[in-house]
Design goal:
Length: 666
């Protein structure tokens, strides 16, 4: 077995590999850029080597810098994680020449499966069902339009060397095919150094289901069931689960056997994933094979008990697999929620900054429930613009799907993140969505259920009442503390009223409160009553309460004139008034936000790639105005209506902050 391995990656996956290596008694080496000097993976590793400036193309994906780090530290093997160099055949070749083991598949498998055009041809030859498409190289945008028309819209335009949703577009007509080709080609070149593009039929009502495979160098190969990855946004997975709520045993077996057949066709060893698109009739079609560890591997580990990172290391060391196909089972249900530094209230645009608060729920490993959080950040750390926006992968396990969802709801409720925009509210909203709960999901779930973007969840009336009851309890607790002036006699303290008006955004409740030791009895005007207990203290963000003995967790913050309360995807302004104050508040005018309708504001921190109009141009609804790159994704900003460009303030190459003005209109 290896004595020391180097992890050629960063963030949560580097931390994940270090954990398994540490369990196996193997020393680890981290590499880091200037931006990651204080990163968690650097602190966790036994050694760390600096490899350059923040941009990945000057540090993490420069092969020579990784090789130098290996020579400096004497590492015997390299785990590439995912992304970066994980599917670069030339990297694996360079390690081989150096006499260093690559903790991944052989070069031939990477070359065959890493190229999506070649992989589809090989899949067809191996008897794997494939999606109709054009496997040749595409010359230009007009050629792309011609091919798309022949296949029949809608089509998927994809980077041959792509992954993680980069360099991928769906086109429904010629114009979208033309623009999608250009954008995919540009993203592919910047993200992978390979701008080849291919086009395939886009399957409607699709589900994204993938099979985990594991092979060794002794000819053994097995599949470890499937993962459902249909909850996606812009082809980027958001929530995954294992097993799939859609597959039956027969389809699972057929998909697994085809995945293994493909792996064996390229002499695959190590962990890998064969991705399929599955229609409503359980017909499945090969999409691609990822010749690396997958982001969502924890859910497979939770239902099988197999440590995939450990298996990858053992296979790279020449050991045979210790489990057979007949020993692979499905134990319970696991769900993974990807926590991203993306603001759901601004169309999920990237957010950067310092994590002023980062307190994940406690990890648990019990018979009835498990909570796992794979992360690479810490409170006080910085989320930069240079890398993927993922902060953490929160996973829950339980004996059945309903219990796993409930465990995830509670874990998300207790996850504290402040200082940046993040998608926790959206993840919570999905967990409560009837369609997700039913399992009737497709890859279009987010687009169909949130067509105008995410503006917060609408909570049921009963939940609103429970939040109101908790809010009045917290308010009374705060007011009671305020009356306890140091040295004042109890009979001289200000008396609190019994009647209150609680306003959650535009929903108002009139309540009466009876205070008892450690709890409040809250009676609503319609006769509803709750017994509310909480040990919350003013200043705490997480307010844990019991409403009639049932746990309720909300995040609360004292704001000027109101309390901000967040729960299950809702972000509420809560005001607790005395009856007289409520009467007076009703007479106050709401302050209107400033008019920015004649400006194009940068919606996220990013780099201006191009300005597509000039001063004096008349623009129309939907017309491309400029392109801004943030966290490896290009975002096209479009006109919302017909207007004339009067002033252009930004230029290509500018780094802009959120809401910085790009151009003005009349």
């Amino acid at each position: 077995m290896f004595k020391k391995i180097l992890i050629a990656n960063r963030g949560e996956i580097a931390c994940r590999v270090i954990k398994s290596a540490r369990k196996m008694g193997i020393k680890t080496v981290a590499v880091y850029s200037d931006a990651d000097a204080e990163a968690l993976h650097v602190k966790m590793a036994d050694e760390a080597v600096h490899i350059g400036p923040p941009p990945a193309n000057q540090s993490y994906i420069v092969i020579d810098k990784i090789l130098d780090a290996i020579k400096q530290t004497g590492a015997e093997a390299v785990h590439p994680g995912y992304g970066f160099l994980s599917e670069r055949a030339e990297f694996a070749e360079a390690l081989s020449k150096l006499g260093v083991a690559f903790i991944g598949p052989p070069v031939g498998a990477i070359e065959a499966m890493g190229d999506k055009i070649t992989s589809k041809k090989l899949a067809a030859e191996a008897g794997v069902s494939t999606v109709p498409g054009y496997m040749g190289l595409i010359d230009d945008a007009e050629h792309a339009v011609k091919i798309a028309s022949e296949i029949g819209y809608p089509v998927m335009i994809k980077a041959s060397a792509g992954g993680g949703g980069k360099g991928m577009r769906i086109a429904w007509n010629d114009e979208e095919a033309r623009e999608g080709f250009e954008r995919s080609k540009s993203e592919a070149a910047s993200s992978f150094g390979d701008d080849r593009i291919f086009i395939e039929k886009f399957v409607t009502q699709p589900r994204h289901i993938e099979i985990q495979v594991l092979g060794d160098t002794h000819g053994n190969c097995i599949y470890l069931n499937e993962r459902e990855c249909s909850i996606q946004r812009r082809n980027q997975k958001v929530i995954e689960e294992a097993p799939s709520p859609f597959l039956d045993a027969e389809t699972r077996k057929a998909m697994g056997e085809q995945a293994v057949a493909l792996a064996k066709a390229v002499d695959y060893c190590s962990a890998g994933t064969v991705e399929f698109i599955v229609d409503g009739e359980r017909n499945f079609y090969f999409l691609e094979m990822n010749t690396r560890l997958q982001v969502e591997h924890p859910v497979t580990e939770l239902i099988t008990g197999v440590d995939l990172v450990e298996q990858m290391i053992r296979v790279a060391a020449g050991e045979p697999l210790s489990i057979t196909q007949s020993e692979v089972g499905i134990n319970g249900w696991a769900i993974e929620s990807r926590l991203y530094a993306e603001d759901p209230y601004r169309n999920f645009l990237p957010s950067i900054g310092r994590l002023t608060r980062y307190r994940p729920p406690e990890e648990v490993a019990a018979d009835a429930i498990a909570v796992r959080n794979d992360t690479g950040v810490f409170e006080g750390g910085e989320i930069s613009m240079y890398y993927d926006p993922m902060i953490a992968k929160l996973c829950t396990w339980a004996p059945d799907r309903a219990s796993a969802i409930e465990a995830m709801r509670n874990a998300l409720d207790g996850f504290e993140v402040e200082g940046i925009g993040h998608n926790l509210p959206f993840l919570s909203a999905v967990m409560d969505h009837p369609r997700f709960i039913s399992g009737e999901i497709t890859t279009a779930f987010i687009a169909e259920e949130y067509p105008e973007g995410f503006g917060g969840a609408a909570l049921p009336l009963d939940t609103m009442k429970r939040l109101a009851a908790l809010a009045v309890r917290l308010h009374v607790m705060t007011e009671e503390r305020a009356t306890q002036i140091s040295g004042a006699m109890a009979n001289h303290r200000r008396a609190l009223g019994r009647d209150w008006v609680v306003r959650l955004d535009n929903t108002e409740f009139k309540v009466s409160v009876d205070q008892n030791p450690g709890e409040s009895d809250v009676l609503f005007e319609d006769g509803t009553s709750f017994q509310v207990a909480s040990d919350w203290l003013p200043g705490q963000i997480l307010a844990r309460g019991e409403i009639d003995g049932e746990a309720l967790i909300a995040k609360v913050q004292s704001m000027p004139g109101y309390m901000r309360m967040r729960h299950r995807g809702a972000d509420l302004k809560v005001r607790v008034y005395s009856p007289r104050h409520a009467e007076l508040a009703a007479l106050m005018h709401e302050k209107l936000p400033p008019d920015t309708s004649k400006m194009l504001l940068c919606p996220m921190p990013g780099l201006v790639v191009s300005i597509n109009v000039k001063e004096g141009d008349e623009v129309f609804d939907g017309q491309s105005l400029c392109t801004v790159e943030a966290m490896k994704m290009e975002n096209v900003l479009r006109a919302e209506r017909k207007a004339v460009v009067t002033k252009i303030i930004a230029k290509a190459g500018d780094s802009l902050a959120v809401d910085e003005i790009i151009m003005e209109f009349e």
